[in-house]
Amino acid sequence: MVPFLQTTNFPKILTEHNVLNVDLNFRRRRLNQFWKGQVRGAAFWRIGTNLRIFKQMLQDSGDNEWKYRLLLFLFLFIIINFLFNIMMAILTNIYLERLQATSSKFGFMINSVYKHGVVEEMITINDQKANENYLRCLRMLAQKNGLKNYDTEEDPKNKQKLEEDANYKYNIDNIIMSTDQLDKWYFERNDLDYISMYCDLALRYALTLPSKQSRLVEHTVDICFGIINHYEKVAHEEVGSYKLKNKALRTKADIMEYNNVNFDEIRTCLFNALELLEKHEFTSQNTKSIIKDVTEIPEDQTLGNNMLNSILDLCSFFTDSRRPNYINIALQMLTSTLRSLECELSVLDKKYDSEALFGRKQAVHSKDERRLMELKFEKIPLIQMEISEILWYGKHYNQAIDLARSSAQKSMLYSHGNYNCAKIARIGFKNLATMYSKEGDKETAELCKVQSEGIEIPLEAFSVPSRTVRDAVLEYWFGSWGEVMFPG
To answer: Is the pTM of this model over 0.85?
Structure first.
């Protein structure tokens, strides 16, 4: 280790500034003591000696107490900043691992690219860049596992085209590994986690593809579920993230519905998506399955966003089918969903008081507070609007109008700063205008139409999120206190 004073020109600087009136003879004696001390051994002892001599020089340099304090402050700042960076590195790795688990068998390089893709997808909300990173990971894993890549190996120019143009067409069948390549990880290395994480990667790739490539999305999802179903039967264990599988199945069902695929196939796809969430997220003591028994959702069941979206997708599909028996099922599920959400709202409202939260000017920070406002002004009005449309179709006109009015009025209260609420309010008043018009109340219908057109969509809905990894990590670990404790 090079001694501290050996790498500096400290004596020269002091000589050039004679105003300090330093005793140079004394300094030479100190330096001689320092050079003699080098032969004494331990690196830590030499560093300690350097610091003590440096401190003594500052004290002997005359009237410069402020310099000593400034250097001490800078030293403490460097130490604190160093410790903060270490803390952030550890917390960031843990946070990203919880967002998406990775396998150490992938290798450091592939995991780094994979996590970069997760950041682009879930934090900075850039699906295109995320998809590019996921595709790169799939290619590297294919090469690492000996899968010949016909897209790049037959013609080296294709590899250059792929690197320069993200829209370059390729055959995904030559990139995603089949069970033939993955079998060695299960049968030879007994590593089902590797296969599970690989399926997550492939699903993330499919879900971040642009909507215009719907055929590729559906094909990739089918490949992934072929791998998943194979190893779940062999290992009798679940493979892959249930949330990603749920999202993939709902996306596939949406594509199938757009392409007018058979009703039963789409229904099965949506049922499977909902069953995944029921298996992992249902905490109610009710043992009946909402899928197999088509029973009501228990009031004490908390419905997360994934569960609610899955229910809405299924009920919307049933309603659009115009089949009376399935419309009744949709109405039953939506009604029980509304009761469950209202039960959760009642519990949170007693604790936080939504009226007080709505009346205060400062932003809502607590997770429970955000959930309360979301339930009251977004989720419940959305379900009410869906139910009102079914009731209107069933010729229950008065009940439909009452629910539609309640939905539109509630969501309108929070529409000035929330895109979803504004959208629900606009559609709600537009539906009311149609209902009143068909009932013969032209004046009220016109008022509802004007009200719908007067609701402005918040500009924030069209802005690009400026959220950083640092912001996301601090919010995850420290909540609203993260910005206060660690500003900047």
So the answer is: no
